Amino acid sequence: MIMSGINELLWDAHCCVPLLPSTLLAQLLKRHHQSGFSFVSVNIGMDMIPLDRILSVAENFCEEIRKTDYLVLARSAQDVAQASRENRLAISFDLEGGTPFFESEYMVELFSRLGLRQTTLAYNRNNLLAGGCFDTDMGLTESGKKIISAMSRHGIIIDCSHMGFRSSIDVMCLAKSPVIFSHSNAFAVTKSDRNIYDYQIKACAQTGGVICVSGLSWLLGEEQPSVDGLIRHIDYIANLVGIEHVGLGLDYIYEHQVDDIPKGVDLKYWWPRSSLQGRQFKCSFIPPEEISSLAAKLLRMYSKEEAKKILGLNMLRIAEQVWTSNK
Predict the structure, then answer these.
(1) Domain spanning 11-325: CATH 3.20.20.140
(2) Quick one: residue 97, left, alpha or beta (phi over 0 = left, psi -120 to 50 = alpha)?
């Protein structure tokens, strides 16, 4: 799709849909497709979601993709490139937190076969693998190290969004392939415990990785999240570590439903009030339709080749390096 001078692959490293087996994935993601995206990573579960629900959701999503002409389940970087040429939307899955692995390398392989291509080890709170950003971070555990090794063998990108500082640095010191932050912004621009420090940004870049900037209002520090706010974070990270290490992870939430969070889950525990850094406004998101405006503004700031890297080619490079290791 030709859009604002860009005729290239567009990559969104993270979005959320209702985590219900009944979710009509194809109907929701039509907006990503019509906006010109070539790829989006779809969340299928978090640390607080039971395994049976996650597997049911994944099964439903795979069936939705199979029966929809404009969707394709991406198992390789080549699948994404081909989908882009054919004006189709490639999809892979991600997990926010590694609890569903149950510390088992076999479970990592199982999820990889289902289409999982990136995972963060902890979601906001500590688990048996690593520390979360809203907890007393104890660092990467021995089980966490084992799971990282299995993820590398099975072509799953290691994602450090939502993880604690110490754990994220442990991961990046241990990883033998590029690491990403799929939806995190720069703490130096917006003070939020979910954003990441310059040290983390530099450590990620040293792995060859990419920091994908989020359109979430809390992480931008804006009541009404804007493309200009997104660009402030993009430009800060690009100036700090280079264009090659910046991407997009809008973290857009489609039709959030209370029913998709199991009964008994305390959301104030998973997202404590203190995490808002004094902000009282509700969370809102930059929608996928804003990609055209973002592309146009990036072209006024950077060269066409640089803009193409931010909009998708940097993450395609990561997929080429990591997904191709899948056996």
Answers:
(1) yes
(2) left
Nearest Cα to Cα of residue 211 among 245, 168, 252: 245
Distance CA 244, CA 112 (A): 27
What is the reported pTM?
A: 0.95
Contacts 24+ apart (CB under 8 A), 241-244: 241/201, 241/202, 241/204, 241/205, 241/211, 242/205, 243/302, 243/306, 243/309, 243/310, 243/314, 244/205, 244/210, 244/309, 244/314
Among 215, 200, 211, 282, CA closest to 251: 215
**Positions of E strands within 160-224:** 179-181, 210-213
Pairwise CA distance, residues 6 & 309, whole Å: 11
Q: pLDDT, tens digit, for every residue of 150-177?
A: 999 999 999 999 999 999 999 999 999 9
